[in-house]
Amino acid sequence: MIRILMVCLGNICRSPLAHGVMQSKLPEDHFYVDSAGTAAYHIGNSPDKRSIAVAKNNGLDISTQSARKFNVSDFDTFDYIYVMDQSNYSDIISLSRNANDTKKVKLFLDINTSIQNKNMPDPYYGDHSDFEYVYNLINETCDILAKQLNQD
Question: In three state form, how does the secondary structure of the chain look?
Fold first, then answer.
């Protein structure tokens, strides 16, 4: 089983969406997808209501997810750790214990060659259209990633 972790700052906006979208695109008998945050602001909370709404509008239910903070043991649990922006990348890399940990961490948008800015925008302080934009960017990138992972 291939284990994938999606990481953003608070684990209530971007990474829950990436978690839900990625999970919907991969066979669950071969892949396990989860999400986490680099900060402990929202531990135990459901995703942001706007993330839940945009996911629901696209046929996904992410309402049962629960925010958690990234733990060093996640390096042992997951094969791939996809972070949403450079700040998340730096935070996770700073926790890595060795080269094997470091090579698991990737900037999520790096695999999407049609995107110039590799930092996924954080829609938290935005409105519904910001969440829709982030959802579409995540969906497009997850299509690319799912295709790559299914070929391995």
Answer: CEEEEEEECCCCCHHHHHHHHHHHHCCCCCEEEEEEECCCCCCCCCCCHHHHHHHHHCCCCCCCCCCCECCCCHHHHCCEEEECCHHHHHHHHCCCCCHHHHHHEEEHHHHCCCCCCCCCCCCCCCCHHHHHHHHHHHHHHHHHHHHHHHHC
* Catalytic site residue from 34, 74, 85, 122: 122
Range of the domain at 20: 2-151
CB 20 within 8 A of CB 60: yes
**Active-site residue flag, 14:** yes
Q: Out of 14, 34, 74, 91, which one is annotated catalytic?
A: 14
> What single letter denotes the amino acid at residue 14?
R
Tens-place pLDDT, residues 45-59: 999 999 999 999 999
Q: Could you tell me the CATH number of the domain that includes residue 70?
A: 3.40.50.2300
pTM (2 d.p.): 0.97
Does residue 142 carry a catalytic annotation?
no
The domain total for the chain is 1
